[in-house]
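Check these lines:
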Amino acid sequence: MTLHIARRIQHAVTGLVLISISHIIPPYPVGCILLLLATAAFYNIHNKRVEDPKWDDWYLQRFGSLLRNHERGEWEEVDSKSNMTHQQRRKSIPALPGAFYFLIGVALSTFLFPAAVARTSVLVLTVSDPTAGLVGSWFTLKGFNLAWKQLLTKSI
């Protein structure tokens, strides 16, 4: 198990940058529209990388260190006996990266709440999520990890 420090730092920095930008660009409606456009672009890139090995290579070269294993996906070679072309197909489809859900959450917060509430919620998410992940990973590495079943049986 790794601590995924780079991914956690990127998470925090992205949140802080979005909060800073919200003081320059009005959060609603302009900021919300820009966030939704960025989210749509992110989703489009994800779909392209699912279908095309070249897009996937490009994406993984730039963002691979920030992805969890289930967000990577795998390709396998396909034997094409009728022609001599090199083909690949997906062995496993990558899940949408957590950054997609982060952007959706920020966009919804911006749309649904006043700017002060949205900024505060994004700040809490920006700090709390990476911190909770680090603490949970540390406890697991130290052997202090208990499964829910263990907790429930010990409390009865």
Observations:
- The mean pLDDT is 89.
- The first helix runs from residue 5 to 22.
